[in-house]
Amino acid sequence: MNIDIILTHEAIDLRKIRGKICVVIDTLRATSTIITAVNSGCSEIIPASSITEALRLKENILYNEYLLGGEIEGQHIQNFHLGNSPLEYYNGHLRGNGLIFSTTNGTRTLQKVRKARSVVVCALLNATAVVKWLASQSKDILICCAGTRGNYSLEDFLTAGCIVSGLTQRKIICTTTDIAYTAACFYRHNKLLAGNPLSFASLLKRTINGKRLLEAGFEEDIIYCGQQDILSVLPFYKNGTIKAFANLR
Amino acid sequence: MNIDIILTHEAIDLRKIRGKICVVIDTLRATSTIITAVNSGCSEIIPASSITEALRLKENILYNEYLLGGEIEGQHIQNFHLGNSPLEYYNGHLRGNGLIFSTTNGTRTLQKVRKARSVVVCALLNATAVVKWLASQSKDILICCAGTRGNYSLEDFLTAGCIVSGLTQRKIICTTTDIAYTAACFYRHNKLLAGNPLSFASLLKRTINGKRLLEAGFEEDIIYCGQQDILSVLPFYKNGTIKAFANLR
């Protein structure tokens, strides 16, 4: 088992995807929101790479009843039912509903790795559940950080490091690339400052995305997304849709 | 003062160079070798981006007496006087000599940032000397890691983190990008394990480049390059050549 990390979805080499397990991370906020929606009973989420694609899917009779959610460059999308705040998805009103979901970086990352062996949706919220599932597999793992418009995102790297650290601590026989080893060190360094229960909110607030969200009035989202392991749902992306696989906690 | 890091020379955006101080890092081994050569009294080093360019420079009457040094993909270059092991450059036999130097990643990085305001050559060996000099400037800093054939190099990121950590600890008013902040955390995490005097050899041995050097019989190079602050020379790259600026220790 080898563990590697890609820092942005733009850097994903499609030839390196095949046969691997891809862990997709967009901590602020797309994967945190997807995990929350699935945990709240959302029956199915269809990631769309653009607003146009989301609207086209909605016109399909199969998805006609589905809600539209997401954001474009951090902004709410006109005529969409829901935005990209995980707190909008945090209770039971979504139970049994389907969702078409479009964001700037996260959903594009998911679509890009769709030909991998398995694609699991990950954030700090469900990190240990993801580690437990990965530990039960014997496949090479590629952790795909969404990044932000082609740039490094600290919060995605932190979550990636949490996954690498969790796997190596379980004494599973695995090799890590230099970048994966770096991420594990970075996570461990910050875990010492994260308190108990683990909260990385103060670190997330100092990131580019964290500052942007603070300015836009989404401090509660940062606090929520900074919590490690409060959910144990495992959303998988398969055949174009995201569904819960199991609750392993 | 803002501090940013570029992970590979392939990722350098030439538009972002102008007006900035560039810190060029190729810890294993080009910048460690350059720093050592300058410290040993080498009068001038001319970085060449290829063997062909090195040989062409050597034909120039100005550089006819200069020694040829460097490597190609980790191998010694036929008919070159010296390789890319810093230990070959570690004593006085270079005193007063000029050097034409070509390596796979390091010298290309130097050439790429030549239009920056200033270009300083950095490795763990002279890290604190570089920090002291940077602290005396009030300019934006771009730390350019050479990387390895377009891939992330842990040892360059570690050295970059040493620079960021050193600057922020001096309470200099500066901002750090997400990647620069990450590097500082990574460095601090590993500094706790590095002993006194600081030696990062064991960490360097587990990197891709470290393993390659171990296999090729260069363990002593890794041990040497893993030492922080044993030299205080400050080589600057200006008008196509590298010369010592001052000894600030």
Question: How would you portray this structure in words?
Answer:
The structure is a homodimer of 249-residue chains. Chain A contains 9 helices and 11 strands. Chain A is an alpha/beta fold. Chain A has a single domain, classed as ComB-like (putative 2-phosphosulfolactate phosphatase, Alpha-Beta Complex). In chain A, strands 7-2-8-1-9 form a 5-stranded parallel sheet, with helices on both faces. Chain A has a 4-stranded mixed sheet with strand order 3-6-4-5, with helices on both faces. In chain A, strands 10-11 form a two-stranded antiparallel sheet. In chain A, helix 4 packs across helix 5 and helix 5 crosses helix 6. The radius of gyration of chain A is 17 Å and the shape is globular.
